[in-house]
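User: Hey, my collaborator sent me this sequence without any context and asked if I could get a structure. I don't really work with proteins. Can you help?
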Amino acid sequence: MRTPSRRRALRATALMALALLACTKDTSPAGPTPAAANTVAFGGSSVTVAIAATVASREHGLMGMTRMAADSGMLFVFADDRQRAFWMKDTPMPLSIAFLDAGKKVIFLADMPANSTTLYGGLNAGTMRYALEVNQGWFASHGVTVGTNATFTLPAGLVIALDP
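Assistant: No problem. I've predicted the 3D structure and written it out in structure-token form, which is a compact way to encode the shape of the chain:
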């Protein structure tokens, strides 16, 4: 059972993620909006991301989300490299996922149907440090394949929780 303080923390994390996901890419000459500081780029294409670096935020992920802005996603950040698996339980929108190694190279890609309890990754994916979830089809429509390198900088002071 979740404690009230943990529930408040999860709610605050979810609200922050929703705020970031509602942002769109800023192409004005004045430069990017503050939300663009959390951007993952693949060549000329990029997504604005919410960052999941705590155990609670990684466990909750995008559960309950019914839609997401076109060039948005969630970047799951882990403290170590290991094989991991993701599923779509209680996530009512289809997503695509990329696993990235510590060097930010894509090592695994999958399209995941909504609400699926199938595990994606695991022994099929190798060791990963990051996972990026986006609207289903985003990677394919932007030419991202296994072996593509991503570019991003994590926010200064980001605390990355160890898996239990």
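In plain terms: The first strand starts at residue 39 and ends at 42. You can pass these tokens on to your collaborator as they are.
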